[in-house]
Amino acid sequence: MKLLIIGGSDAGIAAALRARELNNEISIALLLADEFPNFSICGLPFYVSGETPNWRDLAHRTEFPNIEVLTNHTATAISPAEKIVHVTDSVGAEKRMAYDQLIIGTGARPIVPDLPGVDHPLVFPLHTMHDSFRLHDRITEKGPRSAVIVGSGYIGLEMADALVHRGLTVALVGRSPAVLPTVESKLGRLIEDELRRNGVRVVSGTAVERITDTGGGIAVSGGGGAAIAGEIAVLAVGIRPNSELGAAAGVHASENGALCVNRHMRTNVETIYAAGDCVETWHRILGANTWLPLGTTAHKQGRVAGENAIGGNREFQGSLGTQVVKVFELAVARTGLRDAEAAAGGFDPLTTFSEHYDHKAYYPRARKLVIAVTGDRGTGQLLGAQIVGHWQSGVAKRIDVFASALHHGMTVEALNDLDLSYTPPLGSPWDAVQMAAQEWVRAFKSAASTPGGG
Ligand SMILES: Cc1cc2nc3c(=O)[nH]c(=O)nc-3n(C[C@H](O)[C@H](O)[C@H](O)COP(=O)(O)OP(=O)(O)OC[C@H]3O[C@@H](n4cnc5c(N)ncnc54)[C@H](O)[C@@H]3O)c2cc1C
Fold first, then answer.
1. Separation of alpha carbons 301 and 18, rounded Å
2. Do the beta carbons of residue 19 and residue 309 sit within 8 Å?
3. Would the pTM count as exceeding 0.70?
4. Which helix (H) or strand (E) holds 79?
5. H and E: helices and strands count for the chain
6. Which of 6, 9, 34, 85 to mutate to test the pocket of ligand 1 (most atoms within 8 A of CB)?
7. 101 lines ligand 1 (CB under 6 A)
8. Which pLDDT score, from 0 to 100, does residue 453 have?
9. Helix or strand or coil: residue 342?
10. How far apart are CA 266 and CA 272, in angstroms?
């Protein structure tokens, strides 16, 4: 059997490794358009910042035993009837590669908004290794002193941190009312405070309308405010699925272009599977498909696709959108649904915000965590959580406790029954997660006992 995989990043490599783990006999070939198989693009901000000085260290792995990895090979078309992929190789020659089973893991592309000036050479997107080389070289060779970042999602935030680390003065312009619109704006504002503490000029609620040349730099303007000037601009306004190849082969796609797959990562076209940022994601709480492009999800979906393409029967267990980002001294994490997302999903959400120490206050360096908990007023089911706190105060560990509880469909109250670890320098007998759950339960019960409040 010939398994052919298009895409050599998280999804494609996870698929190849799983298939090889399960079967050492089949032939596995993997092609990727660039020369960076299994590099961690999640690490690009840290290469640009200089914290990871050698880009080669971003390789998740460099050995792919018994897997034919074809770099600089671009798939240009798929003919499902003949089971052939048309490929342009590294020297521009056309090839036809036959397959028995095919997995598409072509990822995503950065959105380039249709704005005057967006193609200015001083505007840098950040999605691929090559993007990072371009930006890194510009900073190293020309030493710009200032930058404007367009987009205040997690990549924009990581880039603000990275560029301050490189000594630049940074302005961050975002369309949403507060930075990081994937968390409640109350928490977004805490992140804005942290950005300002570190010298970043934050301009939220501003849709950029144009980028103009200032002679040696650029200026970003929009929303009626004054233009914000910088010597370079970084564009981080989101991504969209890189799915045209699959769609042209007859694979159904959703409205936003993500390829449709079932929970076996199978598409509607026989013998074609797909995984990662180019596909829809089954959401474990909503019980429906959505699009949550994350490295964690791409790895899991790729593994499922790799297993099923060679005859397995594994189901993708669903995504919760769990993520964490470090912004200067803070870490911000979320899992599950925000209040508005839960309401849109047909739940009756109640969200509480509370503050708890990460460990016993009598032990040095205890720090407050701000925790939002969202649960359903009808059933008490946990629907989501978000945490902001010092990056060394166990934010990621704690969001993962919430994520595990969500995965298992627990109620908020049941969080109190978890046997979590405790020693005074690291926690409390009731962990911060449980204290936040108790706050939610108090609000839930008080709403239920208030006439008209249930
Ligand atoms: C700056 C940055 C930071 C991030 N940080 C995080 C994080 O902290 N946590 C997290 O979970 N996620 C993070 N992500 C998201 C994560 O990197 C992606 O979700 C993940 O890389 C998706 O993997 P993928 O394999 O689906 O696609 P991609 O990584 O986009 O890879 C696509 C692959 O397909 C190949 N390809 C595309 N078209 C063709 C073609 N026609 N022919 C052949 N090959 C083709 C490409 O060469 C590449 O190998 C970050 C992303 C970025 C850009």
1. 11
2. yes
3. yes
4. strand 74-79
5. 10, 25
6. 9
7. no
8. 52
9. helix
10. 6
DSSP state of 319: B
- Does the Cβ of 13 fall within 6 Å of ligand 1? no
Kind of pairing between the strands at 232-235 and 146-150: parallel
The pLDDT mean for the chain works out to: 96
Nearest ligand 1 atom to alpha carbon 239 = 53
pLDDT given at position 451: 64
The reported pLDDT for the residue numbered 450 is 74
Low-confidence stretches of the chain (pLDDT < 50) are 454
Give residue for tokens 């020297």. Answer: 91
Whether 31 is in the pocket of ligand 1, judged by its Cβ within 6 Å, is: yes
Residue whose CA lies nearest to ligand 1 atom number 7: 42
The neighbour count for residue 446, using CB atoms within 10 Å, is 10
CB of 11 within 6 A of ligand 1: the answer is yes
List the structure tokens of 394.
């166990």
Q: What pLDDT shows up at residue 225?
A: 76
User: For ligand 1, is residue 41 a contact (CB within 6 Å)?
Assistant: yes
Q: Are 399 and 385 in contact (CB under 8 A)?
A: yes
- 306 token code pair: 């790799």
Q: Kindly give the distance from the C-alpha atom of residue 176 to the centroid of ligand 1, in angstroms, as a whole number.
A: 25
Structure tokens given for 105: 């893991």
